[in-house]
Amino acid sequence: MRKYLIPAAALIAIAGGTVVIAQAPAGVPGTKDVAKVTGGTYKVDGGHTQVVFAWDHMGFTNNMGTIAEPTGTLTLDKANPAASKVSVEFAIANLRTGVTKLDEHLMKADFFDAAKFPTATFVSTSVKPEGASGAEITGNLTIKGITKPVTLDAEFYGAGTNPMNKQENVGFVATGSIKRSEFGMGYAVPVVGDAIELKIIAGFQK
Questions:
Q1: Which H helix or E strand runs over 4?
Q2: Over the stretch 16-66, which tens digit does the pLDDT of each residue have?
Q3: What gap in Å lies between CA 151 and CA 171, rounded to an integer?
Q4: How would you class 135 by CB atoms within 10 Å of its CB: exposed for 0-12, middle for 13-18, buried for 19 or more?
Q5: Quick check: 81 and 92 in contact, CB under 8 A?
Q6: What is the DSSP code string of 129-196?
Q7: Domain chopping of the chain, boundaries
Q8: DSSP secondary structure of 57-121
Q9: Rounded to whole angstroms, how far apart are CA atoms 46 and 107?
Q10: Domain 12-205, what fold?
Q11: What is the pLDDT of residue 3?
């Protein structure tokens, strides 16, 4: 079973040594009811979409960062879910670890070389539905001008109409992993981990 990363904003309860991620409370507009999802084209809700990434630091700690405010589109085909498509672009400048010096280093040539490669993109190439609310999404991830195939395990989180803007919303959570060295970012491997665990919180508006 893949490890799920807990984003800093998540509400958690710890009881008897077990960590539980709180679910949306009853009465909110979004519900985990697939019937609420309608087909069509959605745009990424940049204010509620982020990638949480984690890496091993010298075997001492498992550190995290985020990249937020992407742009992109999702096309949902309810009649044929396998025909659905997603395309997302992230600005590397939106990356944050909470450590200023580390953020500055990550922008340099050892890592993202953001001045030369300011964006990262993911474009799906296939969607395989799994059960009533899951999917395996394979696509091309491009970082630092290097494109590699990546597979994400996605799970439907909720759908409904936002009462503030009257727009249909749908959300998913996806997990996966990559090796940073495959994207030209092998600095300090293996002392600092090569494997990067990903959790994507993805929101879309129609």
A1: none
A2: 444 444 566 667 899 999 999 999 999 999 999 999 999 999 999 999 999
A3: 18
A4: buried
A5: no
A6: EETTTEEEEEEEEEETTEEEEEEEEEEEEEEEE-TTT--EEEEEEEEEEEEGGGGT--TTTTTB-SEE
A7: 12-205
A8: ETTTEEEEEEEE--EEEEEE-SS-GGG-EEEEEEEGGGEE-S-HHHHHHHTSTTTT-TTT--EEE
A9: 21
A10: Lipocalin (2.40.128)
A11: 42
As a whole number of angstroms, the distance between CA 126 and CA 20 comes to 32
pTM recorded for the entire structure: 0.85
| The pair of three-digit structure tokens given for residue 11, joined into one six-digit string | 């509400």
CA nearest neighbour of 92 among 70, 72, 74? 70
d(CA 114, CA 104): 10
Say how far apart CA 5 and CA 196 lie, in whole Å. Answer: 11
Give the pLDDT confidence of 105-148 residue by residue, as tens digits.
999 999 999 999 999 999 999 999 999 899 999 999 999 999 99
Enumerate residues 6+ apart whose C-beta is below 8 A from 163.
29
